[in-house]
Amino acid sequence: MAANSILARAIGIEDLTVIRHLETALKEETKTSSAYSAYALRAHEEGYEGIASLFRALGRAEQIHATNHARVLRHMSGPTGVEVSMRRVEGSLDNLRSALVDQRFEVDYLYPTFLTAAVPLFDSTAIRTFHWALEADKSHVRMLWHLIPRVGADRAGWAFTPHQFFVCALCGYAAQETESQNCPSCNYLWERFETIQ
Q: What are phi and psi of 122, to 5 degrees?
């Protein structure tokens, strides 16, 4: 606790709050990325190659978020080490629902809260990494929201066929098809998106 009070006096209480938010975001994104990798393996084991493709893409996107948060933490002289506890891996359909709940939490609560704290400080690096993660997570929610009913209704189609997904290498925005010439979240060139299958 003494180290926190010394750090708070040195950099300011508000900056310390943003650093703590970045630490939380880094931990959440790292944990989610690991979970999605495990979910992809489970989907593959169950023969759901389409779901495995989706989880690989989302896992890569979450990894990009974690990397962005860690970069800003290093810039602010905050700690970047993360200990990851593994989530329970269920069946693929349950994992899809769990992923939707996780992404909704980040979109509805986590990143809006963090942005509210960072914006008054004019901390452009923290604002940018939180904003990019928020907008990218909105794309993840949209994909999951549209694909979950499709998977449940079509036992012999989409879920069993591998699919290509496009992930922005800068912010983690994800899509199943090309949407424009630039990323809707960060304006990165679409031709520089990673293709994940």
A: 55, 35
| Cα–Cα dist 118/17, whole Å | 9
The string of pLDDT tens digits covering residues 6-34 is 444 444 445 788 888 999 999 999 999 99
Asked if 145 and 155 count as a contact pair (C-beta separation under 8 A), the reply is no
Below-70 pLDDT ranges, the chain: 1-14, 77-87, 152-156
Write out the H or E segment, with its range, that includes residue 195.
strand 194-196
What is the distance between the alpha carbons of residues 164 and 170, in angstroms, rounded to a whole number?
18
In whole angstroms, how large is the CA radius of gyration of the chain? 18
Domain ranges of the chain: 2-196
- CATH architecture of the region 2-196: Up-down Bundle (1.20)
Output the pLDDT for position 87: 66
CB 160 within 8 A of CB 140: no
Alpha helices (H) along the chain:
2-11, 13-45, 49-75, 92-105, 111-118, 124-153
Tokens 């990494």 belong to 129
Amino acid at 90: E
Residue 158 sits at φ, ψ, to 5 deg, of: -50, -45
**Does pTM top 0.85 for this prediction?**
yes
